[in-house]
Write a structure and sequence with these properties.
376 residues, Rossmann fold, alpha/beta, elongated, 10 helices
Length: 376
């Protein structure tokens, strides 16, 4: 791995919620402040949907304005811990509008994704260009050498983190039209490739003090901290950053990742069409049953696992085109799809099944409906 230098003199950190700055970039902030660099922190929401760790503060949950005010106070206390002499963290909340913490829900596989119904003022519901304008205004004011935020997946998948990345990348592209663009760094998740490590024993005490100010959100121990019981992180564990590219291609890549659904739909169309006429000796249409089950299972899986219907749309398009194409007569005047009732059920039944899964508003029960109202 090629070693990269990290010595920016003006740093802009873009975070979605109070406490993210200390959880993910506490060492970075402490290191830069200690070196005499200017550090500017832009927080996009006030963490109104936070889940508190202290029993005495449980009444705050669900009371957005009070929770936001409490966490703002925690943030101010945390920022004060980074001060060295006259050098302190400069801070602002996003200014065009007061974005709200969007919260998250857990899908059927326990992964974080956006809530199905969002408040119109939620960060995840805002246009990326609007948020980018807020970031751009700050960039023009401070002229940063480096911008730091989450990775393109939003770290562990929080929609607000993902929005922060998208808006930061867009702001850098807009800024580059008139100024020299800053370096773009993203927070590397565990197991992800990284370019630099920042912090250790020298900055551990500062990070601990800052995290202690966020005691409503973080479990604080003598040597470690955690967001959930059983997943402890040492204060002196270095933070890892990865050099990123703010080009348009970086924004297009997530959409391109869904193209794998096209050959999936093509294969499903071929397999189901070849199988649907198969019967048992007793005349049971086992082939049609299996083929329709394949369509339903794959469609449900794409709908549940993906955070958008994009892959499902592409799969459905390839599937329908393949089935209709195979229904046409071949050069040998034979047909994969006949005029039988089975073929009618296959063609129209499979398409109707996909359509229902696409438009159905809710596909989960019990554990599938498990929600996480906070940003953890």
């Amino acid at each position: 791995m090629a070693k990269q230098s990290f010595n920016p003199r003006r740093v802009l950190l873009v975070h979605a919620h109070p406490d993210d700055e200390s959880l993910f970039t506490g060492h970075v902030i402490a290191d830069r402040i200690a070196s005499g660099a200017e550090v500017f922190l832009l927080t996009l929401t006030r963490g109104e949907r936070g889940k508190v760790k202290l029993a005495d503060l449980k009444p705050l949950e669900g009371r957005g304005q009070q929770m936001g005010a409490f966490r703002t106070a925690e943030l101010m206390n945390a920022i004060a811990e980074y001060t060295v002499g006259d050098n302190k963290v400069q801070h602002a909340f996003a200014g065009t509008r007061a974005y709200l913490d969007s919260g998250i829900r857990l899908n059927a596989f326990g992964k974080a994704t956006r809530k199905r119904v969002l408040d119109e003022m939620s960060l995840a519901a805002a246009a990326t260009a609007v948020i980018a304008d807020d970031i751009l205004a700050i960039m023009k004011q401070i002229r940063p050498d480096a911008v730091i935020t989450y990775n393109s997946r939003g770290g562990f998948g929080h929609p607000d983190h993902k929005k922060a990345y998208e808006a930061s990348a867009l702001a850098i592209r807009l800024y580059a039209k008139e100024h020299r663009p800053p370096q773009f760094w993203t927070i590397a998740e565990p197991g992800e490739r990284f370019d630099i490590e920042v912090g250790g024993k020298a900055t551990a005490a500062v990070k601990k003090a800052a995290l202690s100010a966020h005691a409503s959100q973080v479990l604080i121990k003598e040597e470690t901290y955690s967001l959930v019981t059983g997943k402890e992180t040492r204060y002196d564990a270095p933070e890892r950053l990865r050099r990123a590219n703010a080009s348009y291609w970086s924004s297009v890549k997530p959409w391109m990742r869904s193209l794998w659904a096209l050959p999936l739909g093509w294969l499903l169309g071929i397999a189901g069409t070849l199988l649907h006429l198969t019967k048992t000796e007793a005349g049971l249409p086992i082939g049609l049953i299996i083929a329709l089950l394949m369509v339903a299972t794959l469609s449900l899986a794409l709908r549940i696992m993906r955070r958008s219907r994009g892959a499902l749309y592409l799969m459905a398009l390839a599937f329908i085109v393949t089935v209709l194409q195979m229904a046409q007569k071949s050069s040998g005047d034979s047909q994969f799809v006949t005029n039988s009732t089975l073929s009618t059920y296959w063609v129209y039944g499979s398409i109707a099944l996909i359509f229902l899964i696409v438009i159905f508003p809710r596909l989960h029960k019990a554990v599938w409906s498990q929600n996480a109202s906070g940003h953890r």
